[in-house]
Amino acid sequence: MQASPQFGKLRKTYRSFTFPMSVAFFIWYIAYVLTATYFPEQMGQPFLGLNVGLWLGLAQFLTTFLITYIYVVYANKNIEPQAAEIREEMEG
């Protein structure tokens, strides 16, 4: 089954979302860490009752939840139907 075109298409569908999204989030995370390391004065600036660093830290959590939600929607629409088709074929 791994050599089948259906499985290759499923793998491509999965990877076309997860790899770019993982790279984008990793860059965002590294940017946050590097900014906190090399620009602590700017991160400590007050902004809307908190400092910039705390707002960016909260944004890390929010983007994690957002990415999870987007992935669930994407998987339900694109990945799960293909996986179900392969599962049905394998189980007979």
TrEMBL record:
InterPro entries (UniProt xref): DUF485
Q: Which UniProt keywords apply?
A: Membrane, Transmembrane, Transmembrane helix
- TM ranges: 21-40, 52-74
By what name is this protein known? DUF485 domain-containing protein
> Which species does this protein come from?
Corynebacterium halotolerans YIM 70093 = DSM 44683
